[in-house]
Amino acid sequence: MSLLTIDGLNLTIDGKPLVSNLSLSIGPGERLGLIGESGSGKSLTAMAATGLLPRAILPSGSVTLGGQQVIGAPDRVLDALRATVAAFVFQEPLTALDPLLRVGRQVAEPLQRRARRDGRALAGAALNREVLALLEQVALPQPERIARSYPHEISGGQRQRVAIAMALACRPQLLIADEPTTALDVTTQAEILKLIDGLVRERGMALLFISHDLPVVAEIVERVVVMRKGVAVEAGPVREVFGAPRHDYTRSLVAAAKAFDAALEGTP
Predict the structure, then answer these.
(1) Are residues 102 and 235 in the same domain?
(2) In the chain, N or C terminus with fewer CB closer than 10 Å?
(3) Does the model's pTM come out above 0.85?
(4) Contacts of 178 by beta carbon, 8 Å cutoff, 6+ apart
């Protein structure tokens, strides 16, 4: 059974195509990477998968998440899917997090929503314990201090870990990570990648990982879809696609990545 199936997806705005005839699927425990340059339609595809598209963008085709058709579904259905089947980690946590709420309260909200859906009450000391436990699971130091902090009072890497904790609070079957390391330094990027990789394995989650960075994608996924100008130009196991790319665009991405690595190795 597929957790996410996209079949012939088209996205348009004012008649202009943004994504054209895209099809892909992710089963339980599978890891799929979406790669391509900025504006290739990667993030729009992920937003379409969870019913988060801006109203001006019109979808057609089929998107099923957890067996439920997403296109045209009412908000109450989509809210339930987002809380149980899929959860999102956005690119820039400083804008994704509420600047006026302490971190602990922001983590507590999805924990309480999931508890209500499971038919149990969660409040007070029990809620605080679960908040701190989640912050510990994403390897945040001094979780009590982090929980009391506002987003601007912690580092970018710590904010991204908080965003991951909030996604995990929903206990999703599918984690969607949209460029989760782009705004971070190289050392913190590696830490966040290792964290996501470990958590996905431990929890048996599926992963949709979106990035323009080929080496990053190669570290964390099994299959990849290469997008260019809203069209999937190549797809397959990551080793095959990156090791022997068939499309000119994929070859150019691989060549650029190799050139960049070579330049880094030659830097004194």
Answers:
(1) no
(2) C
(3) yes
(4) 42, 43, 46, 88, 89, 90, 91, 210
